[in-house]
Structures are given as C-alpha cells and as structure tokens.
Amino acid sequence: MDIDSSAPEHSSGAIAGMTVPQARELIGAHIIQVKLNEKQCAALEAEAAKWRGRAELARSKNAADLQAEAERLAAAAETKLAALKAETAELAADIKRLFRQLPALAARERSVDPDLLLQELLISAGMNPGEEALLGVERKFAALEKDAAAGAELAALKAKLAGGGNGA
C-alpha cells in the first residue's frame, strides 16, 4: 500500500545503510502514520454507519432512490476503510520489522572511529595530521640506528677481547 507522501520513502522495512537516528526517524514517521490512519478509520467507520442508517431510513420511507445512493456511499466508505486498514496493518508490520533490525544496525555502527582516534593521538604526540607515514620511516631508521650501534659495540668488544687476550 502507498503511505502518506509526507512519510519517508523507506517503507520496505529494510534499514540497511541508514544511521540509527535515521532509522528511529523512519520508525517514528511510521508510528505517526499509523495513528493518523487509525483516526481516519474511525471517521470512515462513522461515515459508513451514518450512510447505512440513512439507507435504512430511506428503506423505511420507501425512498428507493435515496436508499440506493445511501448504500452506494456506505459501500464507498467501507471500501476506503478496508484499504486504510490494510495499509495500517502493513505499516504496523513494518514497524515491528524495523524495531527488530534496529539493534543490529546499532551494533554495526562504529562507537569509536579508529581513524579519528589515530589523528588525535598523533596530535597529542606533537605531530600534524598526515605525518603518520613519517612514523613508520622514523621507526625503521630508529631500528637501523639501534642495530648499527649494537653492531659497533659488539665489534669494539670483540676487538678488546681479541687485543686483551694476546697481551695477557
């Protein structure tokens, strides 16, 4: 069934690709539409009852033309009522389906943005955003310098041991 044009266009019940606030807004719009439909249903029920009563009055007064018109109007109101009830039931089913999908949508949303967190950590470390590539280079050079220093110390120790063992 087609829902009111003021309702959001996502009426299929699927909320994939939406944010939690968007999904909640869609659910809210559906609930509002259900409430409006319920009020319209009550008005249509009253209108159908009014025309059925008038048809009965016309029948009792032997006014066949008025009776036929009243019955036609009562039937038209009942047809609108049936369509509106079907739409309302579809919207209610959509609401239930959307509520069931909401926790999964919330779970898929990141509660912490790792990219933003990295940028904040870089800024805290005194680096500008975009300098994270330098971190990797800095680490590699630090490792190379550490290995070179350790290698030099090892060579000096070996030379000392080699020189100290011949002299003793």
Could you describe the 3D structure shown?
- By secondary structure, this protein is mainly alpha-helical.
- The protein has two domains: 20-109; 116-167.
- It is 79% helix and 0% strand.
- It has helices at residues 20-60, 64-108, 114-124, 132-167.
- Helix 1 runs antiparallel to helix 2 (64-108).
- The longest helix is centred in the middle third of the chain and has 45 residues, at 64-108.
- The termini are far apart.
The protein's oligomeric status is single chain
N→C terminal distance: 103 Å
DSSP summary: helix tally: 4
- The percent of residues in helical segments reads over 70%
Largest sheet: none
In terms of DSSP E residues, the strand content is under 5%
Structural class: mainly alpha
Q: Brief overview, please?
A:
The chain is mainly alpha-helical. The chain has helices spanning 20-60, 64-108, 114-124, 132-167.
